Amino acid sequence: MRRASHSATSRQVQPRNAVLDGLRPYTLWFVLLLLLGTMSLVSPKFLTLENFFSVFRNVTYVAMISFGLTFVFLAGGFDLSQGAVLILSAMVINSFNPQTPQTFAATVALVIVVAGGIGSLNGFLCGVLQLNSFVVTLATRYIVGGVGFMYAAGAVVGGAAQGPLMEAIGLNRLFNLIPITTVVWVLAGALCWFVIQYSPYARKITVVGSSWRTARYSGLRVERLQMSTYVINSVLAGAAGILVACQTSFIAPTLVWFYDFDAITACALGGISLSGGKGNIVNALCGVLLLGFINNSMVLLGIPSSLQSVLKGMILMAAIIIDIQGKRRRE
Amino acid sequence: MEYLAIQGLCKRYSGVVALDGIDLSFREGEIHSIIGENGAGKSTLLKILAGIVRADSGSILFRGEEIINASPNQLFARGLSAAFQETSVFDNLTVTENLFIGRLYDYRGLGVSWKAARANARRVLEDFGVHSIDPGARVESLSPESKQILEILKTVKPNTRVLSLDEPTASLTEQGVKLLFALIRALKARGITILYVSHHLDEVLELSDRITVLRDGRKVDELLRADATEERLHSLMIGRSIEQSKASDAGRTLDESNPLLRVRGLADGKKVKGVSFDVRSGEILGITGLVGAGRTELAQMLFGLAPKTEGQVIFKQVDITRSITRDIIRRGIFYLPEERHRLGLFLDQNLMINTTISRLKGIARGVMLDYRRERIRSQETLARVGVRYASTRQTVRSLSGGNQQKVLLAKCLFAEPALLILDEPTKGIDVGSKEEIYKLIRTLVGQGMTVIIISSEVEEICLLSDRVLVMGDGKLIGTFNRGEINEKSIALCYLQAGAA
């Protein structure tokens, strides 16, 4: 031991290519720009305000859930139940079909409480009891989805004339341009961004996702922190359900399958680590926009929906491969 | 021609010398013990012989054939097997399945013939005089003794010529040790060479034909059993003089009447069996003992990480027996865990995050984190412990072991504790960093901090401590005050406890 070298104490990182490495976090934004550029050349309808805002309107629910999922993923968890929560919330809203602002507010409160309750259940099982989050939330997804079916009695919920407030949220545009739902998700995103960027809470869940053992040894209450992320996610899914209900007056319980995985796809695309400890709202937003514009482009190009699904899967696979390669290089 | 000859074997782990040019030779059919303190290089030697760790240089000749850095399978094929400290038996499989793992196809017709396999397993067990294990039993239902025996039998193949055993008695009771020794003698009777690594000198003396003593990665001596006594082996193992200065001692007076921490009858119902002691403000209290004596468990209980079944912990006159870790940190205790990668650091997060997580209040402004303050404060703290780094934004993973350990210390200091509990603070780091950490600990104590240092390295304990507690089997078995601290008596104290 006495001959141990003193020079080996400091092994510093020498990036092979500083410029490329510096740009790495922005890779996906370049991909998005590339997509936008190509599409505006290919399709005359693409580069119009109308089309852009229709994309921003269509991504509403993906965006809301991705923001919530960001918290769950940061803390090293996983949630599959948000699609079911969204549909259940949307159905509850539409079945009550509130006409006045007061009844609307009351229904929204009810939805948020129900969603929060489902999130607490997920959080309790995954965070406090430390059960496998994949299986737990798969189970809640079946349960909540099933309750949705029962609630709808197998049919479609809604169809009656919506109250003025809901109609306004669903159809109106700020300055006759920006859909209200877009404004809502952008504001929600800004709030989440602020929380993740600056709150001690977000710092805590990030390190929990990095290593929950180390977090415990640092005095953090790991169980509660993990649990809280599921609550946040469910509440945002519930809020997304409210917006979806305002946008569309018909909610079929089978739509669960449709809403299930898009937000997870968006987060993965955006580069949020599914194993925890890495990611922010900007990642989620990038994934959301990428996914939204990919969908939009495929529609504009007239690609049949079956092929759309194949392409989406391939894009997701490519994103994961790129992500893993980046990680391996860093190690 | 020598049977198994090792020449000039060297191994470094990222700058730390584990083996420093070792020459050894083994004869056919002997039991050859290798002893030494923690970190002497015993385990590394065995791992190289098993093909698990690659040597940097040197040669290993087995019956005249060069086998250094051969793959584990090549070594198996030549008849060299090894059983390690942690058992690698599969709990969810049966004894038979474990014994023949990887070789079940020998019994394949269309599928595995379990009847034939079990009969075969029974034959193997009885061959070695092991009648107490049912070949059909699931391993999880076996006692630790039976598991250890299975672990060894699993590695003994029909062609085995050399068998390495690393601390096989670590988890055994007296009864189990007897069984194990009978097995080892049965193996020897078949002409198998046994390399036996152990802390327990009485076992070594009972079993061995020859004994090699390692210290700091070098061979100190090789003795025939007839020439060895426990005393002699002790002095060979420890060897060093401990004339090193304890400069910071002078001028520090300890308040005897009013202890900072008072621990009474602490027990967890498992590893810790009623421990009482006081820690006086401003002292360095060393706690040592064999691995498994309950030192880490004790520290974890003090830090609110492990449940306590009995006892009381009073810190600054406040009962913190039932407090959660967060509140214990706020009261002024911080714990540096032994496993720095698994429990101490967030490897993929940057240096700032790792440093400031211990007290986020220190970098908050209102409800928000203040990044400027975080950068400045973490730079200050990292400089205080002497971390060498390029940017506070680089990940901890990108640092060397010694620097990682310093980041962990920075995290501890950022919490501004009054009492710092250090669990093996210099484990696996190079000599240079070690000395820096010693210096830092002395400085901290000079500034009024109180430190409990838990270490298996008696040298380290003696160098730093004002008072030393020795733990054995979950209890305090010795206390050494300032004048009485020397390596020999402390090592004797815990080794005797281990032997008892």
Structure description:
The complex is a heterodimer of chains A (331) and B (500). Chain A has a single domain, classed as ABC transporter involved in vitamin B12 uptake, BtuC, CATH 1.10.3470. Chain A is built from 16 helices and four strands. Chain A has helices at 18-23, 27-42, 49-58, 60-74, 82-96, 101-128, 133-152, 164-171, 180-198, 200-210, 212-217, 222-247, 256-259, 262-270, 281-300, 305-330, and strands spanning 157-158, 173-174, 178-179, 250-251. In chain A, strands 1-4 form a two-stranded antiparallel sheet. Chain A is globular. A six-stranded mixed beta sheet of chain B has the order 6-7-8-3-9-10, with helices on both faces. In chain B, helix 15 links the parallel strand 19 (419-423) and strand 20.
What are the salient characteristics of this protein?
heterodimer; A: 331 residues; mainly alpha; two-stranded antiparallel ribbon; two-stranded antiparallel sheet; 16 helices; 2% strand; B: alpha/beta; Rossmann fold; six-stranded mixed β-sheet; 17 helices
Percent helix of chain B:
25-40%
Morphology call of chain A? globular
Helix and strand composition category of chain A: mainly alpha
Can you tell me the number of structural domains of chain A? 1
Give the C-level CATH assignment of the domain at 4-92 and 138-238 in chain B.
Answer: Alpha Beta
Distance between the termini of chain A: 28 Å
**Architecture of the domain at 4-92 and 138-238 in chain B, CATH level 2?**
3-Layer(aba) Sandwich
CATH architecture of chain A: Orthogonal Bundle
> How many extended strands of chain B?
22
Q: How many individual helices of chain B? A: 17
What is the CATH C-level name of chain A?
Answer: Mainly Alpha
Strand arrangement, largest sheet of chain B? 6-7-8-3-9-10
The interface involving the most residues is between: A-B, 35 and 50 residues
Q: Write down the secondary-structure element order of chain A.
A: HHHHHHHEHEEHHHHEHHHH
On the 0 to 100 scale, the average pLDDT of chain A is: 84
**How many distinct beta strands of chain A?**
4
> Structural class of chain B, please?
alpha/beta
Distance between the termini of chain B: 41 Å
Rounded Rg of chain B: 25 Å
